[in-house]
Amino acid sequence: MRKTRNHDQPREGIAIAARPPYAFRMKSSSIPFCRLVLTSVLPLLPAPLPASAAPARGATTSAVAPPATGPGNGIIALPPNPVVPAALRTCAARTPTGLGYTILRPATGSRPASTDIALVSYIGYLAATGAVFDQGMNSPLPVDGVIPGFAEALQMLAKTGVARFCVPPALGYGAQGSGQLPANADLVFQVELLDYKTAAEVEKMRSTQAPEPAGQ
């Protein structure tokens, strides 16, 4: 979802493997938020199991089966297939700007503003072929630092909400395309809004976690 300039240029799912997002340009002001996300989440991960605590060879362990999901619920499996089926490449409604959308998991509450930083999980794929070109999990994205269609999409979601967005070329990369994306490509994004912070909140978090001067 990276922005490019001209001169260089309802209910159904959730994403995905973490890697640098393809379609947005991270601003330097949002980098501290990425670090804060990592420093906040990593301590909560379970420590590796010591060898002495590992089950003995031949020992059996009880397993809890995951809850079954009904057919036709439209949720994309994790990790996603390289090609998303045609049924998940369309949207049920459109905004006045031409952005298509289908609400997959409704949510209520406040929504991000254009100056906020959103924490999202998402998949991006081509409407024509379903080929996945981008995916990210727990990715902090500056709302005003992504393509227009994705920025509008983020501002339509409340926390925990999931939706599919159909981005026309005019709200994406237009006639110039970008990288592996062809010119005039219709894009589809499935987006889950996990959280968002204002610029002031990010600055406060950064100052709170700033290291103390040497000698203190």
Describe this structure in words.
- With 216 residues, the protein is of the alpha+beta class.
- It has a domain at 28-39 and 77-208: Chitinase A, domain 3 (Roll), CATH 3.10.50.
- The protein has helices at 31-41, 148-154, 199-208; strands at 93-94, 100-105, 117-126, 132-142, 162-167, 187-197.
- A six-stranded antiparallel beta sheet has the order 1-2-5-6-3-4.
- Strand 1 and strand 2 (100-105) form a beta hairpin.
- The protein is globular, with a radius of gyration of 20 Å.
CATH class of the domain at 28-39 and 77-208: Alpha Beta
Unreliably modeled segments? 4-56
Distance from first to last alpha carbon: 43 Å
- Decide which structural class fits the backbone: alpha+beta
Shape: globular
How much β-strand is present in the residues?
Answer: 15-25%
User: What is the CATH topology classification name of the domain at 28-39 and 77-208?
Assistant: Chitinase A, domain 3
The main pleated sheet reads as: 6 strands, antiparallel
CATH architecture of the domain at 28-39 and 77-208: Roll
**Cα-atom Rg, whole angstroms?**
20 Å
Order of helices and strands: HEEEEHEEH
- Strand order, sheet with most strands: 1-2-5-6-3-4
The helical percent reads 10-25%
Strand tally, please?
A: 6
Average pLDDT, all residues: 76
Number of helices: 3
EC number: 5.2.1.8
Domain PPIase FKBP-type: 115-197
Catalytic activity: [protein]-peptidylproline (omega=180) = [protein]-peptidylproline (omega=0)
GO molecular function, one term: peptidyl-prolyl cis-trans isomerase activity
